[in-house]
Amino acid sequence: MRTPLILIQVLGATSVLALSACGNGMDHGSMDNDAMAGMDMGAGDMGDMDMGDGGHGGMPGPTMLAPAPWSGSLSTTDAIDTNAGANVVEVTLRATQTEIEYLPGKKTKAWTYGGTVPGPTIRAKVGDRIIVHFRNDLPEATTIHWHGVRLPSAMDGAGPATSAIAPGATFDYTFDALDAGTYWYHPHVMANEQVDKGLYGAIVITDPGEPTLPVVADEVMILDDVMLDAATGEQMAMKDDMRTQMMGLEGNLALVSGRRSNVGLSVRAGELRRWRFVNSANARYFKLSLVGGTMQQVATDGTLLEKPTAVSELLLVPGERADVVVRVDAPSTTATLRAVPYERAMEGGATTPIDLVRLISTADAPAAASLPTTLRAFTPLSSPAAVRTLRLGERMSSTRTVFTINDAAFPDVPTLNAKLGTVEEWAIQNESEMDHPFHLHGFFFQPVGARTRKDTINVPAKTTVRVLVDFHPHTGAAGGWMYHCHILEHAEGGMLAEVKVE
């Protein structure tokens, strides 16, 4: 039976069945990687909203746990391909409850794909048929949404064509790998709770026709945070916390591919490593800096840039991906990947610096390697057939904060109608005093003035970001597709809507 796209009551709490769910983003104070393209700074006002200026002040973020330096590995488990066919990838995912050791000697109850956090990385190449046999062994309904992947609407795991998968039930997701890139998968039912419990994983699609990068390692690095009781390791939901209700859940322990932060990796000076970053956090923005090393961005949301771009800082917002190539230049030194302070709400307070990964180099420096000067050609989109304005806002109800698109909250936001094969310009106007990461399902968009394509982009407070949405036809593209803020509590709180493509 198909579950309607409405608000439902689950376990006594009102939840958006998104069946729900908003990021790019270089820091808007930096000009790296066309970050400012498409932005009109200072646009928008509070209109008739009930939130006054300074409404996000006085709510400091959590006191972060600071793990002692430790040595380990950041390798993720790969999904097992059970199909011998050269052009078919067939895997099984099972959502289960288990225990994870985030803190040494302490067990945390978690929900997982296949018993690990993150779930297994699914690897395929362009042109492959991907078959995922999914079984839900959780105590509540769920789905899998394939974030950033172009696929049939019935396989998206969100929206009107999707049915929730009941406890004990199974579902087969089948789609073709159309685009190379770094993507990820997660639930779209009560996503703020289910993702936070550990349900997420990466999907990497490669293209043999892309330039070969001279890297010694190609590693998935999923960034997350979790709120734990330091004494027991028990995870805390923080549902009644005012900051969480307003700004989304930020945890007190940063995770790198499911492991506690401040991990040390042994590397050789001068060698190149490709890191495929995914921000799977509910609400935390990771502004990344490699102190003592160099970092070149080669892809955004998985899509290759035209050429490698040196970056000193890289803002990764919830739902967003970025591929970088890192190097420690000098032997016998340590380069530290650090999340540096970022203030995502006016007077909301900057985040605490976090040491994520330490690259400990040896004196054995290999011959210097260099990246290709060109990675891919860029084809600009045609002129838009329509121009739309989407205003992101917030207001207080008698009991909670409501997050809105054009003054309405899901499911009352009017459905947009678009035509396959056309391009539209969307002006995403943030009228609120906090940043919102905006995510569109099923299609890519091009930030106006930038030479890249994305599916997630940051919309800073009091700013308008303009994007060209490419409703390019693909198998199953007709149908309803969600767009929303990827701060998961904001999507559950109403900042979610649908575009119907025919």
Care to describe what's here?
There is one protein chain. The chain has 502 residues and is mostly beta strands. It has helices at 191-194, 242-247, 488-492; strands at residues 7-10, 13-16, 39-41, 70-71, 88-100, 108-113, 119-125, 129-136, 145-147, 170-176, 181-186, 201-206, 217-226, 253-256, 259-260, 263-268, 273-279, 286-291, 294-300, 303-310, 314-316, 321-327, 334-340, 354-362, 386-396, 401-405, 416-418, 423-430, 436-440, 444-447, 456-459, 463-470, 479-485, 496-501. Helices cover 3% and strands 41% of the residues. Strand 5 (88-100) and strand 6 form a beta hairpin. It has 3 domains: 33-55 and 379-501, Cupredoxins -  blue copper proteins (Immunoglobulin-like, Sandwich), CATH 2.60.40; 72-206, Immunoglobulin-like; 217-362, Cupredoxins -  blue copper proteins (Immunoglobulin-like). A 7-stranded mixed sheet has the order 15-14-13-17-22-19-20, with no helix packed on it. It has 3 helices and 34 strands.
Describe, in short, the structure shown.
The chain is mostly beta strands and 502 residues long. The protein is built from 3 helices and 34 strands. The N terminus is likely disordered.
Provide mean pLDDT, rounded.
89
Question: How many helices does DSSP assign?
Answer: 3
Computed CA radius of gyration, to the nearest angstrom = 21 Å
Q: Strand percentage, roughly?
A: 35-45%
The SS-based structural class is: mainly beta
Question: What is the fold's blueprint, element by element?
Answer:
Blueprint: E1 7-10, E2 13-16, E3 39-41, E4 70-71, E5 88-100, E6 108-113, E7 119-125, E8 129-136, E9 145-147, E10 170-176, E11 181-186, H1 191-194, E12 201-206, E13 217-226, H2 242-247, E14 253-256, E15 259-260, E16 263-268, E17 273-279, E18 286-291, E19 294-300, E20 303-310, E21 314-316, E22 321-327, E23 334-340, E24 354-362, E25 386-396, E26 401-405, E27 416-418, E28 423-430, E29 436-440, E30 444-447, E31 456-459, E32 463-470, E33 479-485, H3 488-492, E34 496-501
Parallel strand pairs: 4-16, 5-8, 7-12, 13-17, 16-24, 25-28, 27-34
Antiparallel strand pairs: 1-2, 3-32, 5-6, 8-10, 9-11, 11-12, 13-14, 14-15, 17-22, 18-21, 18-23, 19-20, 19-22, 23-24, 25-26, 28-32, 29-31, 29-33, 30-32, 33-34
